[in-house]
Amino acid sequence: MPTDHSASADAARVPAGDHANAADEPPAGAAALRPAHPRSVPLSELRTLIGAQAGAAGAAGAVEAVDPAVTGVSLNTSQTLPGDLYAALPGAHRHGAQFAAAAVEAGAVAVLTDPEGAALLGADTARAGVAVPVLVHAQPRTVVGALSARVFGPAQGEAAPALYAVTGTNGKTTTTYLTTALLGAAGAKTGLIGTIEILAGRTPIPSVLTTPEAPQVHSVLALMREHGVGAAAMEVSSHALSYHRVDGIRFDVAGFTNLTQDHLDLHGSMGEYFAAKAQLFTPEHTRRAVVLADDDWGRAMAAHAAEQLGADALTTLLVDGADATASDGTTDLPGAVWRVIDVVRDGLGHRFTLAGPDGARLRARTGLPGGFNVANAALAVLMVHAGGMDAPQLQRLLDETDALTPQVPGRMQVIGTAPHAIVDFAHNPDALVRALEATRPAGDGKLLIVFGATGDRDATKRPLMGEIAARLADVVIVTDDDPHDEDPAPIRAAVLAGVHRAVLDERLGTVVEEVHPRAQAIRRAVELAGPQDSILVAGRGHEVWQEVKGVNLPLDDRQELADALAAGRRGQAPADGAAPEPRDGRHDEEGNTRA
Ligand SMILES: CC(=O)N[C@H]1[C@@H](OP(=O)(O)OP(=O)(O)OC[C@H]2O[C@@H](n3ccc(=O)[nH]c3=O)[C@H](O)[C@@H]2O)O[C@H](CO)[C@@H](O)[C@@H]1O[C@H](C)C(=O)N[C@@H](C)C(=O)N[C@H](CCC(=O)O)C(=O)O
Ligand SMILES: Nc1ncnc2c1ncn2[C@@H]1O[C@H](COP(=O)(O)OP(=O)(O)OP(=O)(O)O)[C@@H](O)[C@H]1O
Fold first, then answer.
1. pLDDT band for position 58 (50/70/90)?
2. How many whole angstroms from 428 Cα to the centroid of ligand 2?
């Protein structure tokens, strides 16, 4: 599960020099996400755009009297640059208006807030740092996207990248990498916005959120235009849709992977979770859609997309449920229906054929391990197809390049081969099932799993994940994930409750251990594994920091696993509790992949 860091913590969590290009040092901090040549829009124009009122706060409250030129938008002071409109939004913990003075100090030329924020500002003239105009809107978060689009969006006639969005509980990151790899193989300069990194120009920028806030999304798109990016793929989380982070963007193609339990802390129910994701498949947000419709949620999304966009704008994909009917017996599917057929294991990955309308066929191969990556790869192929690439060109790319085998950090990443040692990002029940199924060794080998659950997030999935691990692994080592502000022991206990329940109720022979800290749990798994076994370290994937009570501790599962395997081969235990420094380098001297 992603560790959530405030934007201000971002600089600290990125190891210096990780991606730096010494010859061409990129702008640091907030400026790294901004275009070099910002446009300037009069505040009065923005006020008219959103129908805001001028607030009473501050002598400079009258917009018309001052009408500053706005060159950027921000909603966190750590991201505020001179010339910005600072959106002071109500938050879960505090009101952004409390930070308005700091925003003005950072150079904000105006503030947008709600009536509560305006009252906060007016009530405290000492903080009326807001000697800048204040716009007041009943629901400012709902207009930040439109404002950002106006300030950062393309000028009339300016070329903009083709935009591909991916949403769904699992598979977003992988599918965006697959999509950009295909588009790149076709010669496009590509961009990416997602959980791992933002690629908008010369230098990758590590991500803080899966989908950044609206001002950053729009400024990154502006940066992409400046760098001549022709096509970009972006992960769109349900949080992003609920928090209006992609408002003001109409994607060319939006893809749907799946919907399974996660994020119920935010959405409350699966129905609400579905409704949040469904917002992407409306004319406001996309022109075309590709929906993986293997189960009832997928079918419901396909029906919703067909209704919203028209069946001509929809491609429906079936992978596992190629000839299944819905639970209500329905067989009809809207849109152009493609099916994955003839799936054959090939090395760690699979070969498969996409069978479409009128006998269309696309033969493909992905080297990414796990059956679910066939679904991700097929979705990426059809998204690129829906974006305008015809079948013959796609087939040529699939034949001549390895575009469906991109490196996706921390997703089924193979760290060692004897034992088979894999780091994966599975952090919800469905992903855990699939990751365990994909790593089960052939023959008599045992499957060992090291995992935990995140603090401050959907607690109902903890015992469920425990049950799954007990059923599908031979050795379960329960440890800590990102506890955030929670005490880690009760989180482990909740996971273990699920493990023990399944072991008792289903009379399983699973070996169960509780080991922490996590690095030690990884070493314990390596100690217990034989060369024919498989170890799955699940939950944290590419992450290099573990957040414990507001402190970021260095922890990279890939490096811990590689170190433990190397030490195991040398017949020595790695230094107990040694916290690794994140390092560069792809392979150690024994050929294990490094982070
Ligand atoms: C639950 C959630 O999404 N919270 C978001 C929300 O935070 P909040 O309401 O707690 O904000 P707050 O701390 O009360 O502060 C109020 C306001 O003051 C501002 N502020 C606050 C402090 C300061 O020094 N300066 C400042 O300007 C804040 O930007 C905010 O607008 O508004 C903040 C500002 O926009 C977001 O950064 C924050 O995302 C936090 C970091 C977060 O963890 N979000 C996660 C859950 C998330 O969005 N995840 C999804 C899904 C990932 C997945 O699929 O697994 C994602 O897309 O990443
Ligand atoms: N199509 C899929 N169906 C089910 N599980 C998948 C699928 N694709 C990937 N997974 C599993 O989910 C994990 C996360 O994959 P990925 O990062 O691509 O998804 P994501 O939607 O971006 O996740 P997140 O929203 O948490 O960032 C993988 O490590 C793998 O275990």
1. very low
2. 9
108-133 residue pLDDT tens:
999 999 999 988 887 444 445 568 99
Whole-angstrom distance, CA of residue 295 vs CA of residue 98: 46
Give the span between the Cα atoms of 432 and 465, in whole angstroms.
7
- Tell me how far apart the alpha carbons of residues 216 and 530 are, in angstroms, rounded to a whole number: 47
Is pTM, for the whole model, over 0.90? Answer: no
Q: How far does the centroid of ligand 1 lie from the alpha carbon of residue 307, in Å?
A: 33
Pocket test for ligand 1, best of 94, 216, 234 (most atoms within 8 A of CB): 94
Average pLDDT over all residues of the chain: 86
Query: CA 232 to CA 518: how far, in whole Å?
Result: 36
294 Cα: distance to centroid of ligand 2 (angstroms): 16
In order of 349, 419, 525, 584, the CA distances from 567 in angstroms are 29, 13, 13, 19
Q: Residue 151 in contact with residue 218, Cβ under 8 Å?
A: yes
Model pLDDT for residues 248-295, shown as the tens digit of each residue = 999 999 999 999 877 667 767 888 889 999 999 999 999 999 999 998
Contact 540, 425 (CB under 8 A): yes
What number does the ligand 1 atom closest to the CA of 95 have? 16
Pocket of ligand 2 (CB under 6 A): 2, 168, 170-174, 195, 210, 235, 237, 257-258, 372, 375-376, 411, 424-426, 430-431, 434-435, 541
Whose C-alpha lies nearest to ligand 1, atom 16?
91
Which ligand is nearest the CA of 213, by number?
A: 1
pLDDT tens-digit map of 185-213: 999 999 999 999 999 977 888 898 999 99
Least confident of 196-210, 289-303, 436-450, 529-543: 196-210
Give residue ranges with CB within 6 A of ligand 1: 2, 4, 75-77, 89, 91-94, 96, 99, 209-211, 213, 237, 239-240, 243
Q: What is the DSSP string of 237-287?
A: -HHHHHTTTTTT--EEEEEE----S--HHHHSSHHHHHHHHHGGGSTTTEE
List, in sequence order, every beta strand (DSSP E) within 356-446. 361-366, 413-417, 420-424
Higher pLDDT, residue 330 or 435: 435
